[in-house]
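FIELD: query
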Amino acid sequence: MPLPKLSTPTYELEVPSTGKKIKYRPFLVKEEKILLLAMETEDEKQMADAVKTILSNCIQTARFKVETLSLFDIEYIFLNIRGKSIGETVELNVTCPDDGVTIVPIVLDLDDIKVQKSEDQSNQLDLLHHPN
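FIELD: result
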């Protein structure tokens, strides 16, 4: 008797630079392990390669090439995959810009991160703050 296949949910997302829709799934334990191992090395190239590998594994859209994505597309897609895999919120400690010393804990909702295009086609990540 064959083992049952576990189905993972799929989600749809618009790639900011192209406007094309892609389908993706949350990352699994094997992808999380790839990321953790790369983070342990503290080597930026290995971490970037790990993120690209995870994106390649998790994006379900046929013939989609991660290598052609801009950096902000990679970051945006990865944040969405991370949100569906681990949770939509991240707890951060932010240093207060007034005194440069005071540390304030905040909870960041990954769903609030949007890419905004300006009229001159410059793309930038913009965090939209929504009070709790």
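FIELD: remark
The CA atoms of residues 114 and 126 lie 6 Å apart.
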